[in-house]
Amino acid sequence: MGADHARRIHEVISGARVSAVVDVDAARAEAVAARVGGCPAHTDPAAAMAAADVDAVLIASPGAAHEAALLAALDRDLPVLCEKPLTPDTASALRVLQAEQKLGRRRIQVGFMRRYDTEYIELHRLLRTGRLGRPLLLHHRHRNAASPSGWTSDMLIRDSVAHEADITRWLLDQEITAVTVLRPTPSAHAPDGLQDPQFVILETADGAIADVEIFVNCGFGYQVQAEAVCERGTARVGDGHAMVTHTAGRWGGTIAQDYLERFHAAYDREVQAWVDATRRGETTGPTAWDGYVAAAVCEAGVRSLTEGGRVEVELAERPALYG
Ligand SMILES: NC(=O)C1=CN([C@@H]2O[C@H](COP(=O)(O)OP(=O)(O)OC[C@H]3O[C@@H](n4cnc5c(N)ncnc54)[C@H](O)[C@@H]3O)[C@@H](O)[C@H]2O)C=CC1
Ligand SMILES: O=C1[C@@H](O)[C@H](O)[C@@H](O)[C@H](O)[C@H]1O
């Protein structure tokens, strides 16, 4: 993801350039740096942030490494675009919130890129108009062709359903209050011991229900879909019907194979929005609070997955900085 964002800043985004690349794996850092014009490559994030020509930081290391990098960036008062998850758990997310509050202004945008996807934006707008009436249900499907090696059952929640935790709150403008995770018999194509698929039920403060099918070894491609069921109609996004062919007695289209293909335009808009806001001296988009709430929802989800039953989401009081 980091290599793709570096390419994006180098090739697509206006108003920014890649001035340093960091990876604990020196060879990877050097390879990416070479592809974006030969900037310095580092293995230590703090050392890279100390460079005079670093004005902003994009974090795309694994979630467990985000807290240290975020705190180092906030320490230098640098604007940050941090890939989801903000951090993998609420304790570390709260530490990040505290550090940002100390600065007294927002510095962190979290990489929930679906908020920049044109289809999700259209659905968000439609729901705001009230034309369909009150949303009652939200059906999400989230399918990956195959899980990366080493994936564990909790990662389906923390790494994948984190997106639905965020987009459900954003679409419905309601907090998620409880999570129940159901465990169907795993697919024969899932690695041994991986609970895949899972069926996640999210309850919201105003009584709507969102369900998420998360299936990370579906085999056939990458699909992210959402259907809002409202009092006066339904609206659905993510069918991917860009071009439909009719030939030899059949009709059909193609299925994206990964998130880079499906969401490439959303990532472009997300990073451009971050760069534009940074140049204006502002921070916009999903907040560190949104990242914290997603972590809290996922934490409840992982408890439901491991202990069974319905788990309520516990949230800290929302600090004034986050409105
Ligand atoms: N928004 C989206 O759709 C997606 C977001 N992501 C997010 O992007 C982040 C990275 O994910 P991937 O690229 O899939 O992981 P990856 O494992 O493919 O790459 C992570 C890289 O970070 C390096 N690294 C590990 N610890 C580090 C540290 N402390 N400091 C600097 N570099 C470190 C690794 O050597 C590796 O090169 C994660 O937060 C993930 O959740 C990933 C895929 C899609
Ligand atoms: O964020 C992402 C990955 O980390 C995650 O592994 C995938 O399931 C998601 O679809 C993708 O958007």
From TrEMBL:
InterPro entries: Gfo-Idh-MocA_inositol_DH (IPR050424), Gfo/Idh/MocA-like_OxRdtase_C (IPR004104), Gfo/Idh/MocA-like_OxRdtase_N (IPR000683), MI/DCI_dehydrogenase (IPR023794), NAD(P)-bd_dom_sf (IPR036291). The keyword Oxidoreductase applies. Residues 1-112 form the Gfo/Idh/MocA-like oxidoreductase N-terminal domain. It is an enzyme of class 1 (oxidoreductase). Keywords: NAD, Oxidoreductase. It catalyses: myo-inositol + NAD(+) = scyllo-inosose + NADH + H(+). Gene3D superfamilies: Dihydrodipicolinate Reductase, domain 2, NAD(P)-binding Rossmann-like Domain. Residues 126-313 form the Gfo/Idh/MocA-like oxidoreductase C-terminal domain. It comes from the Bacteria. Its EC number is 1.1.1.18. PANTHER family: INOSITOL 2-DEHYDROGENASE (PTHR43593:SF1), PTHR43593. Homotetramer. Involved in the oxidation of myo-inositol (MI) to 2-keto-myo-inositol (2KMI or 2-inosose). Belongs to the Gfo/Idh/MocA family. This is Inositol 2-dehydrogenase. It comes from Streptomyces thermoalcalitolerans. The lineage of its organism: Bacteria, Bacillati, Actinomycetota, Actinomycetes, Kitasatosporales. The gene is iolG.
